[in-house]
Amino acid sequence: MNKEYDLIIVGSGAGGATVASRLAPLAKQGVRIALLEAGPHFSNRYFTQREIEMFDLFYDRGAWPTADGAVTVSFGKAVGGSTLMYTGVTFRLPDDVCRQWGVEGLTPEDLAPRFARLEKEVNVMTPGPEMVNENNRLFRKGCEALDLPVKDIQLNLDGCEQMGFCNLGCVRHHKQGTAAVQVPQAVAAGVELVPNCEVRRIAGHTLEATVKSTPPGTEPGPWSPGEYRISARQIVLAGGTVGSTALLLRSGFERELPALGKYVTIHPAMTVYGIHPQKVEAFRGFPKVYYTDAFSEKEGFYLETAFYYPFITAKNTALWGTELTHVMQRYDRLMGIIILAHDEALATNRIRLDSKGLPQLKYQLSERSIEALCDGQRRASRIFFAAGCEQVVMPNARQILFGPNATDELDSFISPRHFLPNKTPIASAHLQGGCRMGQGPEDSVCDSRGRVHGHPHLFVADGSLFPQSAHVNPYLTIMALADRVAEGMVA
Ligand SMILES: Cc1cc2nc3c(=O)[nH]c(=O)nc-3n(C[C@H](O)[C@H](O)[C@H](O)COP(=O)(O)OP(=O)(O)OC[C@H]3O[C@@H](n4cnc5c(N)ncnc54)[C@H](O)[C@@H]3O)c2cc1C
Questions:
Q1: Which residues, listed in sequence order, are joined to residue 362 by a DSSP beta bridge?
Q2: pLDDT for 406
């Protein structure tokens, strides 16, 4: 079947839906715009808060492994993209990181008004005291006992009812991700939303796509299942680091753009636990309201409060048998902290295609990241014990489950010597790079406004544009870059 549009946007996550909402006024004037999304359109009715059922929201059911199986990477495949299951932790790109990126015209001064506007649109707020659950209160207590600065995490929420487990989708759409804000805005203005529509290839101005049938319980789209050839005057790719990069690789762009797929960063993360003598019930309330950046500049990581559902928690412990049973039986007494390492952009960390044309992430943790994650475990242990925990779970310790006696020798007790690839549970939910911005096609894929080098009608507007890691949770920066891309297109 053939279709014709003025503008096609591929992907409805942080980047794609922001472009759609920015260009939506053109749709009101008669410009034909479609927003194609590979994933289903899950509505609020779909969310059950049960982890096994809600893994449908994710690509590859939420545990896409790197090529060597050492890191599990999660991202969304749904209307709303990864903003459907994100937590809503909101950071502006730090000014020093923006300057290090060295992208022409992309300055803190350029970004500041975009951040301010976006923060209003997606309702970024500072959580009040009523949102501090016991896990967060104890984190603050532990940090303060150690003289560590504790900061409020900004969140984009509206009317949060603190039902917990935000990463399984918000039952009431209180999280102000793109499925709640930008997609409805764009659709109301006349942008056509097409769920279950996966774009396979691009050749010139033509996209080849497959529309699958609507999964039970999700909202139907306007196109019937089948194969489509869609022509468009302008095309915006916003499939995320994996989706956009794989699409360009499958379409043969690697020959002219050797940087395609390279310099992927992931903020490698570990969630670690302390066992408190009293009930913490970290699964109640909002999971994240505090962080400390005390170790960002020198050691290269952030510590944020965090808590996840039982299966993910069991995986994060790296324990088996009686020790795992011991910890999981105390699930209601667990404190949780996530260590997010900054990561380095290396050409060898890259998206490539396997023999079936499916994307693969070839990624190896740098020595610096491993050291940062071990240091994070030492710091988190001290915070847990200062908050009153009786035992902690640190996958890179000589003995994973240990009590406060070990704190005198923590530097040798938790060490890269105990870092066993594929045995240490590393996860990532922050994919960045793959179609990085830069000066020219020798070492980048897009210019500073997201235009693919040498292809005036083709743009990228998602996390794949990042030339290096953002150090902080990335969604707001992705939206700000998408805003720049849309602005450039209009101009
Ligand atoms: C569990 C979890 C928690 C997170 N928490 C936070 C947080 O608190 N704060 C924060 O800043 N960030 C968070 N993130 C990360 C953040 O959500 C992502 O960085 C951001 O959404 C990425 O935006 P994007 O536009 O690059 O891609 P996405 O938002 O992932 O959207 C890409 C979309 O494109 C679609 N697509 C891909 N390929 C195709 C194709 N070929 N055809 C059609 N459609 C396609 C995908 O299905 C997907 O829906 C979290 C992520 C996860 C998974």
A1: 350
A2: 80
Phi then psi dihedrals of residue 310, to 5 deg: -60, -45
Positions of the chain with pLDDT under 70: none
First to last CA, the chain: 32
Contact between residue 338 and residue 271 where contact means Cβ atoms under 8 Å apart: yes
Nearest Cα residue to atom 46 of ligand 1: 77
Q: From CA 353, how far away is CA 250, in angstroms rounded?
A: 8
DSSP for residue 295: T
Q: Beta strands 206-211 and 192-194: pairing type?
A: unpaired
**What pairs with residue 325 in β-bridges?**
none
Contacts of 78 (CB under 8 A, 6+ apart): 37, 39, 40, 41, 42, 57, 84, 85, 179
φ and ψ at 331, to 5 degrees?
-50, -35
Burial class (CB in 10 A: 0-12, 13-18, 19+), 94: middle
Q: How far is CA 398 from CA 203, 217, 406, 418, 481, in A?
A: 54, 47, 10, 6, 43
| Residue length of the chain | 491
Question: Hunting for tokens 């903020």 — which residue is that?
Answer: 267
- DSSP-assigned beta bridge partners for residue 72: 65, 427
Torsion of CA 263, 267, 270, 276, to 10 degrees: 180
* Cα–Cα distance for residue pair 221/18, rounded to 1 Å: 20
Structural domains of the chain ordered from first start: 2-56+68-123+167-264+432-490 (3.50.50.60), 129-154+269-342+366-420 (3.30.410)
pLDDT of 190: 97
Pick from 260, 238, 188: nearest CA to 475: 238
Pocket test residue of 21, 55, 56, 82 for ligand 1, highest count of atoms within 8 A of CB? 82
Cα(20)–Cα(310) distance, rounded to whole angstroms? 37
Distance CA 244, CA 83 (A): 17
Distance CA 369, CA 346 (A): 12
Ligand 1 atom at minimum distance from 80 CA: 49
Dist CA 432 CA 372 (whole Å): 19
Q: What is the pLDDT of residue 417?
A: 95
pTM (whole model) above 0.90: yes
Ligand 1 site-directed mutation target among 21, 475, 483, most atoms within 8 Å of CB: 475
162 CB-contact burial (10 Å; exposed 0-12 / middle 13-18 / buried 19+) = middle
Q: Is 198 in the pocket of ligand 1 (CB under 6 A)?
A: yes
Q: What integer pLDDT is reported at residue 173 of this predicted model?
A: 80
